[in-house]
Design goal:
With about 375 residues, this protein is of the alpha/beta class. Helix content is about 40%, strand content about 15%. The strands form two sheets. It has a six-stranded mixed β-sheet, sandwiched between helices. Strand 3, helix 4 and strand 4 form a beta-alpha-beta unit. Helix 2 crosses helix 12, helix 3 packs parallel to helix 4 and helix 3 packs across helix 7. The radius of gyration is 21 Å and the shape is globular. The model has no long low-confidence stretch (mean pLDDT about 95). Bound molecules: ligand AN7. Ligand AN7 binds next to helix 4, helix 9 and helix 13. The site of ligand AN7 has 21 residues, from helix 4, helix 9 and helix 13.
């Protein structure tokens, strides 16, 4: 190959729609809007297994490695492709941050407008930056996610704008690809699949994915679904909407999940559990995943491991069970949290003696 001659990308991953086309409601003429989402790493957590002394085959599905840094891209590629097929001129969503980041990026790629409603002061800075830089029309409301979603739902009744929250069925269609990938990467379905639960779209989507993969005879068994909500925002666990949800994991600060029913069905059909984990448990799992496994996920994502650790202590699992935890988003989006949890780094004079002294006992 001559220098400067580009032959295109070799062995390209084509994005989830092209890779799993037979499972999606797309047509020949559907314009595919993709940032090549999916194909995210499935990482075996050997270090964590040793460190915690747990007898599980534990894996992380790191969906923070998606183009905009979260699993939402899996749903957004389909939602935007269908919006384009329907000749939509604008998309709208309410968001705790990741949906808005993803919608903004995919709308930019599609060349249409994005409008996002977010709870003021309650979304991670990186996510807000993403919506702004992709040139979405960002509106901060002095209210929470649930209120923002109600406004957005009312707006799409009146205006010709496509809703891209997970009540848009194409979102869940796309997100089920995570289940396909996990089965393909492992070579079989896991015994358990643990996820954080906010609006409950992802657990609903993954469960749908496993069922479809089984129907297509790609797998012969189904996993048991485990969903974890933050204790201060755990409507499904408490059995009633939470008016003022609170948690450090702002991504899942949701009091009235749109896919509530889907989450209950996933739990009950698979024989799984939906439980609450405290902010302390979430933060402990968050720093553990980063320091022991080298994966920087966002706090909400760590709810999956926090929940698995909690159930492990309750002797819920059998020795050697295969457990996949989805890490839904990238920690860089919400780096501020690190400084709330860990000490600031040492500061010393620019002099070798001072640095050596600071490293006493380390080198
Ligand atoms: C990192 O972006 O709801 O249970 O508006 O960003 O499918 O809602 C985000 C949710 C987990 C929960 N982890 O997933 C939004 C939004 C992260 C998230 C969830 C979200 P769902």
């Amino acid at each position: 190959m001559k220098v400067g001659e580009c032959k295109g990308i070799r062995f390209p991953w084509r994005g989830i729609i092209e890779e799993y086309r037979e499972f999606f409601p797309v047509m020949e003429k559907t314009p595919i809007v993709t940032l090549k989402e999916g194909n995210t790493p499935l990482i075996k957590a050997e270090n964590l297994k040793k460190k915690l002394g747990i007898d599980l085959e534990l894996y992380f599905k790191f969906d923070g490695a998606n183009p905009t840094g979260s699993f939402k891209d899996r749903g957004m590629t389909l939602a935007l492709s269908k919006a384009m097929e329907e000749d939509s001129k604008a998309v709208i969503c309410a968001s705790t941050g990741n949906t808005s980041a993803s919608a903004s990026a995919y709308a930019a790629k599609a060349g249409i407008k994005a409008i996002v409603l977010i709870p003021e002061g309650k979304i991670a800075l990186g996510k807000l930056a993403q919506a702004l830089v992709h040139r979405a029309h960002v509106i901060q409301i002095t209210g929470n996610f649930d209120e923002a979603l109600n406004i957005v739902k009312a707006l799409v009744e009146k205006y010709p704008i496509t809703l891209v929250n997970s009540i848009n069925p194409y979102r869940l269609e796309g997100q089920k690809s995570a289940a396909f990938e996990i089965c393909d990467q492992l070579g079989f379905p896991p015994k358990f699949h643990a996820l954080p639960v906010g609006n409950a779209g992802n657990i609903t989507a993954c469960w749908k994915g496993y069922k479809e993969y089984k129907r297509a005879e790609k797998i012969t068994s189904l996993p048991i679904m485990l969903g974890f909500q933050a204790a201060g925002a755990a409507p499904i666990v408490r059995g009633r909407p939470i008016k003022n949800p609170e948690t450090i994991a702002t991504a899942i600060r949701i009091g009235n999940p749109a896919n509530w029913k889907g989450a209950i069905e996933s739990r009950d059909e698979s024989g799984g559990r939906i439980e609450a984990v405290t902010d302390d448990e979430i933060l402990n799992a968050y720093t553990l995943i980063a320091s022991v496994e080298g994966i920087f996920c966002e706090p909400a994502s760590a709810a999956s491991l926090a929940g698995v650790m909690k159930l492990y202590k309750e002797n819920y699992f059998r020795a050697g069970d295969c457990v996949v935890c989805t890490l839904t988003g990238n920690g860089l989006k919400d780096a501020d949290v690190v400084f709330k949890v860990l000490k600031e780094p040492l500061k010393v004079k620019a002099d070798i003696q001072a640095v050596v002294k600071a490293l006493e006992g380390i080198i």
